Amino acid sequence: MAGSYCKVILVGNLGGDPELRYTPDGRPVVSFNVAVNRRRRQGDEAWVDETDWFRVTAWGKLAETCNQYLSKGRKVLIEGRLQTRTFQGSDGQTRKFIDVIASQMVLLDRAPAAEAAVEEEEAIEAEDLPF
Description:
By secondary structure, the chain is of the alpha+beta class. It has one domain (8-124): CATH 2.40.50.140. It contains two helices and six strands. It has a five-stranded mixed β-barrel. A hairpin with a 5-residue loop joins strand 2 (19-22) and strand 3. It is globular and about 55 Å long. The protein starts with 7 loop residues before the first strand and ends in an 8-residue tail after the last helix.
């Protein structure tokens, strides 16, 4: 094989609202956390829920789209690649983080505002109509 390949697909919920920033040259970048839940059996009968957290970064137009449509709690599919960051902490210890650099984002739920609008329409009774 001539090269290497790394692809990550996450399906989970946002742990908070995205944080949009701009690089000094004006390029948009957004960061957010995605929680991925799984259930496993512990022992013979008990089920245990576990959550893994992933830090996601998106650049350019995708960053602006994520910032516009994502918010805490939204269900999302993220496709991207892994990137390792290393830095020196204030205590002198070397820290290593693995980020997901997003190449695609797909919303997997309806927007809360759209749900509210549908609920309001359904709440109107026929007798309330003026005609």
